[in-house]
Amino acid sequence: MYYINLLSNTCRSVTLIPEEAEDMWHAYNLVSIGDTVRSTTIRKVQTESATGSVASNKVRTTLTISVENIDFDTQACVLRVKGRNIQENQYVKMGAYHTLDLEMNRKFQLAKHYWDIVALERIEMACDPTQHADLAAVVMQEGLAHICLVTSAMTLVRAKIETSIPRKRKGMCGQHDKGITKFYDQIIQAIQRHVNFDVVKCVLIASPGFLKDQFIDYMFTQALKLDIKILLENKSKFLAVHSSSGHKHALKEVLSDPAVTCRLSDTKASGEVKALDDFYQMLQNDPNRAFYGIRHVEMANEQQAIETLLISDELFRSQVVATRQRYVQLVESVRENGGEVKVFSSLHVSGEQLGQLSGVAAILRFPISDDISEDEASSSDED
């Protein structure tokens, strides 16, 4: 997804173009009851001729509606937004109901009275490919390497490294070894510069022959020698695979390899899955450091005890503005207190599991006693 105009203090609207299925999910999470949506649509219009005969035909027009109902069809990947027309139009009266079908590659404008931090982060995540490029790849051969970020829709080449490496000659291997070392060092620097390990879950190192293995051995030897912590801490994310060359097009064959596909399946959600596993482990071993349900979690937050907040994106789609704001304020407060926030997709299995725990849970820094009665907690969660 990308946006055409930026949000500012004077502009409360943004124009978006969804480019893939995941973008439609982002749009579903962005549009709320009471928002204003403007898009092109097809409207059935009846016209009366001079003789009194009535003809019915379909016309394409642009409508602006105040949203009253939202429906997302996950199979067709269409977001249906229903509401009243709020701008003069030659075909549709003011106040008349209409349903806009928001689809991929169809531009629409979204306006809100107030853009909270969750909505702004959702736009940033959807529109910045590096935010959801959770796979990186280095495709290499002697003297040529491409450092790429891979999303579900595109491959971004962040760096291309070309260097001349002298050939091996009998009794004179020194120049070749120096050239290879310099080449490897440039790739290591590019990985450090372009790969965000907070987002990227796997880094493929692909090459013909044994070059990939030699490079990985050299990289981690240097990381130990120079104490490059970012590489050492993420060693498990590197995966050596075969490619026919160091050109970008070789990445396609790498990603279609069944062994690689199995390893990379659902890398994006692995961080959320691990957080949920950590929560269940804590709930079993130290229940006073694992809270769930909004009242329990809010109580823990009041004591600045939350280390990791787990929250379902479904809670931000509440039709009650005060309820949505309650969860938004919780997210902001946890971050202000130095806690980590993980927003789970309710379409993913981990999000469904979190939904069974009321959609909000927290791993605490230290144990605290549970002073809330069961009745109070359950009635609060129902609210």
From TrEMBL:
<keyword id="KW-0479">Metal-binding</keyword>
<dbReference type="InterPro" id="IPR029064">
    <property type="entry name" value="Ribosomal_eL30-like_sf"/>
</dbReference>
<dbReference type="InterPro" id="IPR005142">
    <property type="entry name" value="eRF1_3"/>
</dbReference>
<dbReference type="InterPro" id="IPR058547">
    <property type="entry name" value="Pelota_N"/>
</dbReference>
<dbReference type="GO" id="GO:0071025">
    <property type="term" value="P:RNA surveillance"/>
</dbReference>
<dbReference type="GO" id="GO:0070966">
    <property type="term" value="P:nuclear-transcribed mRNA catabolic process, no-go decay"/>
</dbReference>
<dbReference type="InterPro" id="IPR005141">
    <property type="entry name" value="eRF1_2"/>
</dbReference>
<protein>
    <recommendedName>
        <fullName>Protein pelota homolog</fullName>
    </recommendedName>
</protein>
<keyword id="KW-0963">Cytoplasm</keyword>
<dbReference type="InterPro" id="IPR005140">
    <property type="entry name" value="eRF1_Pelota-like_N"/>
</dbReference>
<dbReference type="GO" id="GO:0070481">
    <property type="term" value="P:nuclear-transcribed mRNA catabolic process, non-stop decay"/>
</dbReference>
<comment type="similarity">
    <text>Belongs to the eukaryotic release factor 1 family. Pelota subfamily.</text>
</comment>
<dbReference type="GO" id="GO:0046872">
    <property type="term" value="F:metal ion binding"/>
</dbReference>
<dbReference type="InterPro" id="IPR042226">
    <property type="entry name" value="eFR1_2_sf"/>
</dbReference>
<dbReference type="InterPro" id="IPR038069">
    <property type="entry name" value="Pelota/DOM34_N"/>
</dbReference>
<feature type="domain" description="eRF1/Pelota-like N-terminal">
    <location>
        <begin position="1"/>
        <end position="128"/>
    </location>
</feature>
<dbReference type="GO" id="GO:0070651">
    <property type="term" value="P:nonfunctional rRNA decay"/>
</dbReference>
<dbReference type="Pfam" id="PF03464">
    <property type="entry name" value="eRF1_2"/>
</dbReference>
<comment type="function">
    <text>Component of the Pelota-HBS1L complex, a complex that recognizes stalled ribosomes and triggers the No-Go Decay (NGD) pathway. In the Pelota-HBS1L complex, pelo recognizes ribosomes stalled at the 3' end of an mRNA and engages stalled ribosomes by destabilizing mRNA in the mRNA channel.</text>
</comment>
<dbReference type="InterPro" id="IPR004405">
    <property type="entry name" value="TF_pelota"/>
</dbReference>
<dbReference type="GO" id="GO:0032790">
    <property type="term" value="P:ribosome disassembly"/>
</dbReference>
<dbReference type="GO" id="GO:0005737">
    <property type="term" value="C:cytoplasm"/>
</dbReference>
<dbReference type="Pfam" id="PF03465">
    <property type="entry name" value="eRF1_3"/>
</dbReference>
<dbReference type="Pfam" id="PF26356">
    <property type="entry name" value="Pelota_N"/>
</dbReference>
